[in-house]
C-alpha cells in the first residue's frame, strides 16, 4: 500500500473512492458495514464515503456520499492523503462532525458510532446496536493511525 499527494493520477484498473474521517471530541465517527460477503470489508468498522461517479471530483464525491449515507453535509472537507492498494484508490478527507450523532440518519450500513483512539489502536470497537465487538477494516485502522500520528 502507498499514499500520495492529491495530484496523483488514479489508476484505471481499480475503483476510485472518496472517504471521510469525521471527528468529534477526540473520537471518530465510523460505519459498521453490512455483513454481506460480496462487499469489501463486510461486518467491519469503516469510513463513510464511497465510489466516485464518472467525472466527479473526490471532494464533491465525499460530500455526496456522506450526505447520502448519514444525511450530514460536510461544508469544507480537508484533504488528508491518497491511499492505494489492489482493492481501491482512496481519496481521504477529514472534517469535524458539528452535529449530535442523534441528528444523523443512517441510510447505509449496520450501525454507526464513535471510535476512540484507544479502540483504533486495538483494531476493534463495540457495537451497541449488535451488542458485540467488531473489528475495524485493516486499511481504515492504518489510515486512522496515520491521521492520529500527524
TrEMBL record:
Keywords: Hydrolase. This is NUDIX hydrolase. It holds the Pfam family NUDIX. Residues 12-138 form the Nudix hydrolase domain. It comes from the Bacteria. CDD domains: NUDIX_Hydrolase. InterPro entries: NUDIX_hydrolase-like_dom_sf, NUDIX_hydrolase_CS, NUDIX_hydrolase_dom. The keyword Repressor does not apply. PROSITE patterns: NUDIX, NUDIX_BOX. It comes from Crocosphaera watsonii WH 8501. GO terms for molecular function: hydrolase activity.
Amino acid at each position: 500500500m502507498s499514499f500520495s499527494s492529491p495530484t496523483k493520477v488514479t489508476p484505471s484498473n481499480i475503483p476510485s473512492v472518496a472517504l471521510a474521517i469525521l471527528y468529534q471530541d477526540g473520537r471518530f465517527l465510523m460505519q459498521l458495514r453490512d455483513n454481506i460477503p460480496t462487499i469489501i470489508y463486510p461486518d467491519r468498522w469503516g469510513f463513510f464515503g464511497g465510489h466516485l461517479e464518472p467525472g466527479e471530483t473526490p471532494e464533491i464525491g465525499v460530500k455526496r456520499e456522506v450526505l447520502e449515507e448519514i444525511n450530514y453535509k460536510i461544508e469544507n472537507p480537508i484533504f488528508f492523503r491518497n491511499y492505494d492498494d489492489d482493492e481501491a484508490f482512496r481519496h481521504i478527507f477529514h472534517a469535524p462532525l458539528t452535529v449530535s450523532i442523534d441528528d444523523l440518519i443512517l441510510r447505509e450500513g449496520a450501525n454507526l458510532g464513535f471510535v476512540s483512539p484507544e479502540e483504533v489502536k486495538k483494531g476493534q470497537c463495540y457495537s451497541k446496536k449488535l451488542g458485540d465487538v467488531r473489528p475495524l477494516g485493516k486499511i481504515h485502522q492504518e489510515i486512522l493511525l496515520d491521521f492520529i500520528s500527524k
